[in-house]
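Readers of this paper often ask what the protein records in our data store actually look like. The remainder of this section carries one protein's record, kept here as part of the documentation.

:::
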Amino acid sequence: MMNQIDYIVIRTLQSAANLVVQDRHCFEIYGFDVILDSNLFPWLLEVNACPAFTPSNEEDYVLKCGLIDDTTSVLDLEGRLTGYEKRIGGYDLIWNDGPVYANSNDCGYSLGIEDGPKLNSFLGGAF
């Protein structure tokens, strides 16, 4: 199920790449709404270009503060990143029209091929 959600998010972002402003001096945060059917099959409901950041409870507060913290890490205002990172904060990275894959000894989600490449994904994983 988590692989399928990864696939939905990656393919949605790839399909809209020409609509996103390609300026390294700005960024957008998207909110993906996914629903699961009775067989735990994920369906994309919508993508929010302006998701709400007002927390509704304590767990939501922790989630959204983490998102803001991770976003400031990606901005790298202090110049600490090398450009070779496989993960920054809790973000999954997509680069050059595809996902960044985990090293063979890293954890990650298989693409359905035994001993094949694994997505370097936090989706559904523990932080």
Residues 21 and 27 are 8 Å apart (CA to CA).
